[in-house]
Design brief:
CBS-domain, three-stranded mixed sheet, CBS domain, mainly alpha, AMPK_gamma/SDS23_families, repeat
Amino acid sequence: MAVALLNEKAILPDEDYFEAVQARKRLPNGLQESLNNAFSKIPVSSFPEAPGGKVIEIPGDTSIADAVQILSEHNILSAPVRNPNADDTAIWYDRYLGMVDYSAILLWVLENAEFAAVALAAGSATAAGMGAGAVGALGALALGATGPAAVAVLTIGAVGAAVAGGIAADKGMGKDAPTAADYLGEDFYKIILQEEPFKSTTIQTLVKSFRWTSFLPVQPNDSMLTALLLLSKYRLRSVPVIEVDESYIKNMITQSAVVRGLAQCRGRDWFDAIAMKSISEMGLPFMPSDKVICIGDNELVLEAFKRMHEKQIGGLPVVQGSTKKLIGNISIRDIQFLLLHQELFSKFRHLTALDFMTTVASTTGSSVMMPPITCKSDTPLGDVIEILAAKNIHRIHLVDGQDELLG
């Protein structure tokens, strides 16, 4: 049976949405029972181990910069946060603080970066009265209203330096945050990971101050059915596997791992029974086309990432102007390009979704964003699963004959 630890500020699922999804299913009762029975017989322990046999964890006292680097190096979206004050013998609910989400970290950085830009706009990174303390003070003044209170513990001297050297100089130059960001270029990019509040803010501070991904673990003897229910109902990207009487996470079951597992079930009676059915026969997509959350190609890419985070979804279709013509797809994972590629980061406040996709495609050679991966209403479910597994994605958009977005 699954066990649960919810961060007190974790985002809980929309029950109306979950019930609506259940209501739109068109599987015959007999087939639904067969699927539930099959999934209930597959133990969580049968899933392949994490790469290297070890789940990547992030200590709670890790800095923002180091956490971003860890997630980027291992190409993962989230990771469990380990309590730095707990020893190796601590039980799992004392050992882990929760999950940290890559996208939320970067959105916090981007949302607060403009305050560092204001500080630096005094003239240069070494302007009179401006130093790490001043930048940190400005960041903390902003965060005091919107973010972690711990960052606001600054000395009177630091605040004074900010007021005397930063704010006054900024008013004299008449530059606002977006303008400052545009002018600072490489200096602005460097300051994000080298100056306050970014340099000293730790992951545990953010976990305690923001609403993060729910920490809902399962046990090795739980079934795949349990894991699937948690992933779908709570809109999770991954589920930790933990032995109740042990102190560490044994494995992480991700959405992509589930899709790959399903693809390997071809040939089994229960799988073939649904694989031959078309998307429309399965009642897919569950969400009607007028409810699909999307982003226009001329809208800011930062707005796309904010929308994903607010709606707790992993990606958005990009449509042409005000039409429903699908031209691309942006995943929450793609937010890393804003921080890791200076040519994108230096203009993130004015970068449109189309410019973002075009730049990433030209610099990385990636074809995942453009053209988008799609399917039609008559596409067999088995083919969709194969595409998802082969492309290592967990989202595919449904279009009509004119590439108009349906779901």
